[in-house]
Amino acid sequence: MSRYVLAVVVALALVGCAGLSGEPQSTETATATPSIEEPSTAPNTTALIDTYRARFGAADSGTIVRNTTVRAGDSSIEADGVVRFDRSGERAIEITEERILETPTRRVTYTTGSETYQRSGTGAEATYTADATPVQPTNWSSMADTTDLIAAPDWEPAETGTVRGVTVRQYTAGSFANASRFGADEFENLTLSSARLSVDRDGLIRELQVTFSGRLSVGPREVTLRVVVADLGGTTVSPPGWLSQARERTR
Q1: Which of 31, 178, 207, 211 could form a disulfide with 224 if both were Cys (CB 3.0 to 4.6 A apart)?
Q2: Is 32 exposed, middle or buried (0-12, 13-18, 19+ CB in 10 A)?
Q3: Rounded to whole angstroms, how far apart are CA atoms 100 and 7?
Q4: In CATH, what number is assigned to the domain containing residue 8?
Q5: What are phi and psi of 24, to 5 degrees?
Q6: Beta-carbon neighbour count of residue 152 at 10 Å?
Q7: pLDDT 10s digits, 192-251
Q8: Global pTM value
Q9: Cα separation of 226 and 209, whole Å?
Q10: pLDDT over 70 (residue 182)
């Protein structure tokens, strides 16, 4: 699995119980698209990965939505986040919402490449920090790199469906074909419970969802991870209203 995605999963798995709600919404218009035939064979994952990297890498802008749930017995941890990036405008913003020990938190990170600020909390309780080494907006697309997750499962053709109004071919899996591609070094006894891959008519992966289980140093964990790529070429990023306040407080 990609280093970024795996780091998020392991970090959540090692934390105590938490909960999070409210997936940030995409601006992608849910318009009807022409129907496509149901897949009849397993996908060529090498071709899918090549298309995924080429299309995403060439996009001037895009939106990445991530949902992660980690379960340990009767307890669970959830984290939702959205990243919007605009390479042409050299701007990116990440919004993360979570609840730890019944205390809700919201973090927003905004970067232009020359400056990066983070706002934690809301209202009068909000705090601000400045990153001494600004994050480059071009690097934020790595958050959508799920290529190892694509290559690992034993995919089979399924029905067609839609993802945010886009018609897609769907593939499902109930086992790993190559578990070593999917964090086997970090998780012992790694087992895939279910997976779904959604690909549009142009060969671009629109959604990936996997549920797997394994053991970490703190004990067994079950993880559900969902990544959605949307609004390629149609995402705009505006400076947050609190930017001037962040600059003032972090001087």
Answers
A1: 211
A2: exposed
A3: 18
A4: 2.50.20.20
A5: -60, 145
A6: 26
A7: 999 999 999 888 889 999 998 888 777 788 889 898 888 888 999 999 999 999 999 998
A8: 0.77
A9: 4
A10: no
Strand segments, DSSP code E, in 101-216 are: 103-111, 116-120, 127-130, 156-163, 166-173, 188-200, 205-216
Burial of 146: CB neighbours in 10 Å, binned 0-12, 13-18, 19+:
buried
Domain count, the chain: 1
Residue 31: the pLDDT is: 42
Tokens of residue 103, six digits: 């205390």
Cβ neighbours of 209 (radius 10 Å) = 17
Q: Closest Cα to residue 83, out of 121, 113, 115, 111?
A: 111
| Domain of residue 154, residue span | 3-249
How crowded is residue 27: how many other Cβ atoms within 10 Å of its Cβ?
12
CB atoms within 10 A of CB 163: 19
**What 3 state SS string does 195-218 have?**
EEEEEECCCCEEEEEEEEEEEECC
Distances (CA, A) of 82 to 4, 123, 182: 14, 21, 23
